[in-house]
Amino acid sequence: VRPPSLTIASPIIDAVTSEQRFILSGSVPTYTTLTINDEPVLVSEAGAFSKEVLLREGMNVFVFKVRTSLGNESMQTRRIVYEPPPQPIPLEAAPQVPAVIDTLNTI
């Protein structure tokens, strides 16, 4: 008996992102169950799934498992690195530049 198919549409491959919210999506055969990191995921009648996750800074690992009622299982892993965008320096924290005196226009 063959293991069930598992198609991951997002992310197709391991990814790097500057967005903290990320959508994991794909499809599995009907009449199977899906977990991501051992948490059950709702699957449509057509077999499609979509789950929004909040990434932690650095490496995030997601293990997708699909299982049939007979216990046959397929598993795939995806890694997403979250690199937050650099934060702008507030004006009050920016280094102070000394004022330049315009001596040419004071005559």
List keywords for this structure.
single chain; 107 residues; mainly beta; three-stranded antiparallel beta sheet
What does this entry look like structurally?
This protein has strands at 7-10, 15-17, 21-27, 32-36, 39-41, 48-54, 58-68, 73-82. With 107 residues, the chain is an all-beta fold. Strand 4 (32-36) and strand 5 (39-41) form a beta hairpin. The model has no long low-confidence stretch (mean pLDDT 89).
Question: How do the helices and strands line up, and which of them pair or pack?
Answer:
Layout lengths: L6 E4 L4 E3 L3 E7 L4 E5 L2 E3 L6 E7 L3 E11 L4 E10 L25
Parallel strand pairs: 2-8
Antiparallel strand pairs: 1-3, 3-6, 4-5, 4-7, 7-8
Offer a quick outline of the entry:
The protein has strands at residues 7-10, 15-17, 21-27, 32-36, 39-41, 48-54, 58-68, 73-82.
